[in-house]
Specification:
The chain has 2 helices and no strands. It is an all-alpha fold and 71 residues long.
Amino acid sequence: MLTFWCCLGIPLGIAATVTGFLGRKRAAESGQSTGMATIGLVLGIIALALSIIITIIAIASGGYDFNYSID
């Protein structure tokens, strides 16, 4: 959740969503509580959504330079 504003937000959000989903499935199959896995799933979805929104805003506002070079 803390990395949604940088380039790591999208891949980490995807990883959190996938592992949260798998954790919920495994916990339900073994009869354990799914609370922590659900929290991870929700936070992963929120981080992924915020990362995508921030990326779209940065590209649309011109705040992201695709042709950046060090001279």
